[in-house]
Amino acid sequence: MPLPQKNRYPRNRQRQRRPQRRPLRRPNKPNPKSNRNRQKPHHLGRRQHLLHSRRLPHRPQWPPGPPPASQQHRRNTSIPHRHIKFWGGLALKTQDGGKGLVEDELRAVKNAGVDVFFDTAATGLLTDPTSGAVIGVEAVNNDSVGVYKKITIAAGAVVLAAGGFEASPQLRAQWLGPGWDCARVRGTPYNTGEMLRIAQRDVSAKTAGDWSGCHCVAWDADAPVDSGDREVSNEFTKSGYPLGIMVNRDGERFVDEGFDMRNYTYAIIGRRVLQQPGQVAFQVWDARTVAWLREEEYRGKVVRRIEGASLEELAEKCAEVGLADPGRFVECVKEYNASVEDGDGQKRWDPAVKDGLATKGLAVPKSNWALPIDKAPFLAVKVTAGITFTFGGLAVNPETAAVISETTNDEVPGLYCVGEMLGGIFYDNYPGGSGLTSGTVFGRRAGRAAAERAGKSGRLEPL
Ligand SMILES: Cc1cc2nc3c(=O)[nH]c(=O)nc-3n(C[C@H](O)[C@H](O)[C@H](O)COP(=O)(O)OP(=O)(O)OC[C@H]3O[C@@H](n4cnc5c(N)ncnc54)[C@H](O)[C@@H]3O)c2cc1C
């Protein structure tokens, strides 16, 4: 039986009834006691707010003079905004990052009466021998410490969301290429591609997308090797390179640090670091830009900050942690400094837009945000490559996220796939924020299709 219509999409119905919002206005004299001025949660959930409700941190002003128009727009919180775009084009954020998101999800599934099995690995898909439809999963469960037992979970439909193969050194080397087995893993150690293999083995699932592609960032070289850290989480990411330069172990620049906005470069910059000798690089800034670095990524508590009163001192300190040629490092920074264009006085340094402040005459240019690095004190941070997820996955019907069979080229009845396991979304690069957008869009489609199918099959309860 299909689910009763009234229970299907209650949120949509609520949203239609909601009166149109008035533009946000900040009162002339804020009254701290008034509830009216408190931030209201966005309808997506308590932890998710439109970014226009966020106060911007104080930033130092550089170069001297009034900040450019785009900065004024970003800073002036008294301007009534209905929607504004933030740095890199993001318009939405989750409160407390991934940790907050998972807390919200757990609360939502608990409220919906969903059973969650921790320490349980799916090992196979159960199929109906006549129709070929997926009717459940086999799993190994470890609910009391050290005691593993095989279980089967019957279901009217199964949605696969077990991640890509980023945590498997063997599969990384096989699909992404040489050297990738040595990349650090940013997230869970359990996304080993096992479920991709099981889907191919048990139901001949068809694959899709860019199997040699992945999301990979500049990542703290001191971070754990095989997985991220649940507490530190995203803070190992080091995405401040557009504000400075990156130099490899031999003291050479190797990438245009300013070829686009951070949100369009950070997911491919890790690949460039991985290609360097020793798979490491040093990010370098001077006194002009250090204060613009993100606190969450560069404060002393989360990263080893290498500081020097001169470029020479900085190079010597970097040599203590792996810089092979400090002399060349200093020369390289000086060559870079000499190539920074003064311009005609019209261009202003502005990290909120592609400002066109570029180097001139270098084999490896810097196309935007190029300021000289000559004002003490200097700062460097050692980075390596941190893989987030892989792009290759399973082929699906985009309307329902139903998995496609390699054998029949038709949908596998009762099987859906979302998130990193879904292939064909990303090729070569990745715009910031789109992983969770993909998960939201296809998660909803898969959830709706799976619920409809499970409702029809009458198998809503586990056997
Ligand atoms: C540090 C970090 C920061 C990120 N920041 C952002 C961001 O700011 N914006 C954004 O959009 N995206 C971000 N992402 C990417 C985003 O988190 C992922 O795209 C998203 O979580 C993918 O969802 P998923 O369900 O496919 O995989 P996951 O969220 O990785 O979940 C997969 C789950 O499957 C489990 N699993 C694996 N194999 C099995 C098995 N055989 N049986 C049972 N369970 C299994 C794993 O343990 C894991 O819990 C970030 C990722 C990381 C690691």
Automatic annotation (TrEMBL):
Pro residues bias (residue ranges): 60-69
Location of region: Disordered: 1-77
MF GO annotations: oxidoreductase activity
Source superkingdom: Eukaryota
Keywords: FAD, Flavoprotein, Oxidoreductase
Compositional bias of kind Basic residues: 8-28, 35-58
Gene3D superfamilies for this protein: FAD/NAD(P)-binding domain, Succinate dehydrogenase/fumarate reductase flavoprotein, catalytic domain
InterPro entries membership: FAD-dep_OxRdtase_2_FAD-bd, FAD-oxidoreductase_2, FAD/NAD-bd_sf, Succ_DH/fumarate_Rdtase_cat_sf
Domain FAD-dependent oxidoreductase 2 FAD-binding residue range list: 97-434
Cofactor: FAD
PANTHER family tied to this protein: FAD-DEPENDENT OXIDOREDUCTASE 2 FAD BINDING DOMAIN-CONTAINING PROTEIN, FUMARATE REDUCTASE
Protein name: FAD-dependent oxidoreductase 2 FAD-binding domain-containing protein
Organism: Penicillium freii
